[in-house]
Design brief:
alpha+beta; D-Amino Acid Oxidase, Chain A, domain 2; Helicase, Ruva Protein, domain 3; 3 domains
Length: 498
């Protein structure tokens, strides 16, 4: 039987569409050529936010849409999304205080904020957020946004889609697709070199930075699908300060840089914005980007950093809609959905641009396009149904940790917190009836045990050490090269036996 929808690309947009479509009762197949969320979607600043700086470019519609989504997503995924407070120091040579107050007033009121606290003025000499800063910074403002584990947001959408009947294939490349006899026929190449042919009524091109290349491969009109490829890079350094708030730093070039607590003992700093001109498979941070981020931090913080302090970095290319802006910082982060069909049948629906915060509304708009070609009886639903593991209140994270620690007392609190933050209520699916750490099987490193690895392999498409250590978890930050190799060997042996 043909699928109603075949999706090319397993980033946040593709997996978001798969979840929405499967939940409306239509048949879905998704193919991702590498790991789910393995490119752009896991290389974000890891924020669910309105985009304060977009107000400067009068992109009120995008900011309003993003702010409305902020609390919706927090409610459906309280394990991987949580509120943060951001501190914006006033720089005397840059935006004046009245301008910052106006922007934050709009930010507080554009999006129907109900749960998150509003903006406040900060007197740095009297506030703990002033202690890490140079003494010339005396005034600032504090506002709310949310953190997200971006890679897990992708895989949880895929997991929910699969639970609702979707077929999800990772490490599976679409070789070609053609219209024939009233259907799309799609040929794929799997991880073991096996080929398969699928048929479908609708194709969705959610291939991110490869959207133009995929459209060419499909024979579609590519005139509207030439994205601006913008590379954003981040660095991670040892913890710069001892409180839990974040900073948003203004720079003389008009850009901003986020500084955020990360993985208990580290600080995440980003992002840069550069036109990406090399191969999409060749994405990495450049030395001048590291220098730029260090210089930005050093202009504000007492504790100085240099490139030698960087313990990890990552880069990703964002395929932004080309709105004609001359500067990368002003290119719109909103999305475009382009549909092309043959005699009003067999469409290819291509997605261009967007940001992780608005993936769910993007999926709903794609569903409106799909409904032109496939009968759909059920309406919007994804804003009310929790993602896997997120079936608890958005202020009940601490209760979940305490409950897990009570029921599995052999876990230390850090381990319990990590499991709830990654898996929420599905932590118990991993632990099952374990009475001791020994019951969790082989320890690979840090607090990653065989029971968790098996769950990631069987339920979350984790097939390689990189998938597990850098996207399903961030244990790669704590693993040695030897431990990583041992995990890779284990996964290869498991693959042989399955």
């Amino acid at each position: 039987m043909p699928f109603d929808v075949f999706i090319i690309g397993g980033g946040i947009n593709g997996c978001g569409v798969a979840r929405d479509a499967a939940g409306r009762g239509i048949s879905v197949c998704l193919a991702e050529k590498s790991d789910l969320g393995g490119a752009t979607s896991s290389g974000s600043s890891k924020l669910i936010h309105g985009g304060l700086r977009y107000l400067e470019y009068y992109d009120f519609s995008l900011v309003r849409k993003s702010l409305r989504e902020r609390e919706v997503l927090w409610k459906i995924a309280p394990h991987i999304i949580y509120p943060l407070r951001f501190v914006l120091p006033h720089h005397q040579a840059l935006r004046p205080p009245w301008f910052l107050r106006l922007g934050l007033f709009l930010y507080d009121h554009l999006g129907g904020r109900n749960l998150l606290p509003g903006t406040r003025r900060v007197n740095f000499p009297r506030d703990e957020t002033g202690r890490p800063l140079e003494s010339n910074y005396r005034l600032g403002f504090e506002y709310s946004d949310c953190w997200v584990d971006d890679a897990r947001l992708v895989v949880l959408n895929a997991r929910d889609a699969a639970d609702r009947g979707a077929k999800i294939f990772s490490h599976t490349k679409v070789i070609n697709a053609r219209r024939q006899d009233g259907l799309w026929y799609i040929n794929t190449l799997g991880p073991a070199g096996q080929t398969q042919c699928f048929s479908a009524r609708v194709l969705v091109n959610a291939s991110g930075p490869w959207v133009y290349d995929t459209s060419q491969q499909l024979g579609a009109n590519t005139g509207q699908l030439q994205p601006r490829l913008i590379r954003g890079s981040h660095i991670v350094v040892p913890r710069l300060y001892d409180h839990d708030r974040c900073y948003i730093l203004q720079n003389a070039d008009g850009r901003i840089v986020f500084v955020m607590p990360y993985e208990d003992t580290l600080t995440l700093i980003g992002t840069t914005e550069r036109h990406h001109k090399t191969a999409l498979e060749d994405v990495c941070i450049e030395d001048d980007e590291i220098a730029y981020l260090c210089e930005s931090v050093n202009g504000y913080f007492l504790k100085k950093i240099n490139p030698d302090d960087v313990v990890w970095s990552y880069s990703a290319v964002r395929p932004l809609f080309d709105d004609g802006s001359t500067e990368t910082k002003s290119v719109t982060r909103d999305y475009r959905i382009v549909t092309e069909s043959e005699n009003n049948t067999l469409p290819v629906i291509s997605i261009l641009g967007g940001k992780i915060t608005t993936y769910r509304t993007l999926a709903e708009e794609v569903m409106q396009e799909i409904a032109r070609f496939v009968p759909i009886s059920k309406g919007s639903w994804t804003g009310q149904s929790p993602l896997p593991g997120g079936d608890f209140g958005c202020n009940e994270y601490d209760q979940q940790v305490e409950g897990l620690h009570r029921d599995y007392p052999f876990l230390d609190r850090r381990h319990a917190r990590r499991l709830i933050r990654l898996y929420g209520t599905r932590s118990r699916t991993i632990l099952q009836d374990a009475k001791s750490l020994a019951d969790l099987g082989q320890r690979f490193g840090s607090d990653l045990y065989e029971a968790e690895v098996q769950y990631l392999v069987e339920d979350e498409w984790g097939t390689r050490a990189e998938d597990i250590l850098w996207r399903r978890t961030k244990e790669g930050l704590r693993f040695s090269d030897e431990e990583t190799s041992a995990l890779e060997g284990y996964l290869q042996r498991e693959a042989i036996h399955t």
